Amino acid sequence: MYVILVYDCGEKRVGKMLKLCRKYLNWIQNSVFEGEISEVKLKELVFKAEDIMELEEDSLIIFSGRTQKWMEKQIVGKERSSIENFL
Predict the structure, then answer these.
(1) Domains and CATH numbers, the chain
(2) How far apart are CA 61 and CA 59, in angstroms?
(3) Judging by beta carbons within 10 Å of its beta carbon (0-12, 13-18, 19+), is residue 1 exposed, middle or buried?
(4) Which residues neighbour 83 within 8 Å (Cβ) at sequence distance 6 or greater?
(5) SS3 for 71?
(6) Sign for the pseudo-dihedral over CA of 85, 78, 19, 51
(7) Inter-axis angle of helices 39-52 and 14-24, to 10 degrees?
(8) I want to staple 58 with a disulfide (CB 3.0 to 4.6 A). Which of 5, 36, 53, 85 is the partner?
(9) Phi first, then psi: what are they for 35, rounded to 5°?
(10) Rounded CA gap, 27 and 18, in Å?
């Protein structure tokens, strides 16, 4: 499946969340990730994220679809990190 993941965490947890998400998805902008991921890997990511998060203060939002081709992406301004360069 193709996902876009966005998180908002307290300052003390941002680094840990960034490091975790980069293991599973492509970092495209501050606190925003995208990429193909299996359901099992996504569940693993969410489980590990819950250990980092303060559930009363932080949030993790995941948009998912079958494939990237079903999503339209428009970039205005500088693209922080392009994933088209991968082989």
Answers:
(1) 2-70 (3.30.70.240)
(2) 7
(3) middle
(4) 26, 28, 34, 35
(5) coil
(6) negative
(7) 170
(8) 53
(9) 150, 175
(10) 8
Q: What is the pLDDT of residues 17-65, one digit of tens each?
A: 999 999 999 999 899 999 999 999 999 999 999 999 999 999 999 998 8
Between CA 61 and CA 57 the distance in angstroms is 13
Output the CA torsion sign for 20, 41, 59, 28: positive
Task: Judge whether 9 and 50 are in contact, CB under 8 Å.
Answer: no
C-alpha 75/C-alpha 83 separation (Å) is: 13
Q: Residue 76's Cα: distance from chain center in Å?
A: 20
| Per-residue pLDDT at 65 | 81
